[in-house]
Design brief:
448 residues, alpha/beta, pyruvate-formate lyase- activating enzyme, Arc Repressor Mutant, subunit A, 9-stranded mixed β-sheet, 3-stranded antiparallel β-sheet, globular
Length: 448
Amino acid sequence: MIKLAKKYDLKVPRYTSYPTTPHFSDAVDGETYKGWLAELDPAQALSLYFHIPFCDEMCWFCGCYTKIVARYDPIAAYMETLLKEVDLAADALPGKYRARHLHWGGGSPTMLTPDDWRRLIDRLRSRFDVTDDAEIAVELDPRETTEDYVKGLANASVNRASIGVQDFNPEVQQAINRIQPFEVTKQVFAWLRQNGITGINMDLMYGLPYQTIARVIDMVDKAVSLEPRRIAIFGYAHVPWMKEHQKMIKEQTLPDVEERWEQSEAASKRLEELGYIRIGFDHFARPDDSLASALKGGSLHRNFQGYTADKASALIGFGASAIGSLPQGYVQNFLPTKQYTDLVEAGALPIAKGIVTGSEDILRREIIERLMCDMEVDIDTVCAHHQVEADHFSEELNRLSPYVDDDICRIDGGKIFVSENARPFVRLIAATFDRYLNTKEGRHSSAV
């Protein structure tokens, strides 16, 4: 498989959406979005996502949209705008909708104060019917988290936290500008559990500077010792042409394709040995977690937060750069916070771009999602469900021949199966069904 990792070192999307964000355009704007919101089915529960684009220090590996701030004033002003955007979106809906999944990402939501959390949750409960069983999740930076802050989250009904770690090794941490001793992370885990927040995830990475197989296995062992419910282990995407700060990472310190493969496989094998269920190609969950149940029941999904058991047909994004997903298509807010703020303050939904999803997009999205989630798909069944001829994808099936020859996937009639030891290649199989993709453009991260 290592030889194949070199052979198929292509740039393809992570497929948290289809079509993917590079294909959004300004043909979709705030008025388009307003109409889409008005058309949503009142019987369907919503998911809500909030982007907090602030950090107090730049981690050099970061691929997210964020700003470094030394004062609280910009965050306080942003909070006021975010509350107004909540009102704008809620006003566009034809009623008070149920919300069952709420997620805060960044940047670092840890930059918010406990009072911010109280105000935001109160506003959400006034404008949406936040269900009693709602999952309310927050991404946390342990370096900025205090016991009082965790108490504030618990008082705001937060019940899931995603802990950013990346790696515990001091040399690796130094190289990515994220100094975070193991004991700091361990203390945050303890505070969360003491305050009733027991759904704890952890984010790790391979492919970082100075990582080795031994260090990656040690990283996994330390992570599992804290008993998180879920662990995501992402391959570092080195895209300095898109993220200027990544130039601070010396390329000669990064593992090559072969080393990345070995690190990924070593981490995955160790997590399975320690009792975690493999979810898709980069997530792991304890057997009694809802992700494992969704995988077993065939209801696992994938969205902008990664793998999820969330079944909502619409995800409403709030904040600068936030992306929303609706039955009619995708939308994304303006990235510069000034443009975002100016529009919201003027009473307009701050949409910069988006895309209408046609019937062909929806058909291909289902195939791609099932491949990404289940490592297999029945093309004939999907085509029948969408009332499309079974030979609709004959060209794509023919293009899979090299992957079949290399034992990356198997085709049985209209069914595609990704080989168990070739899970990291699933993005390549999915990309075969992407009619927008040009792998020569180099806008995406390496497939493996």
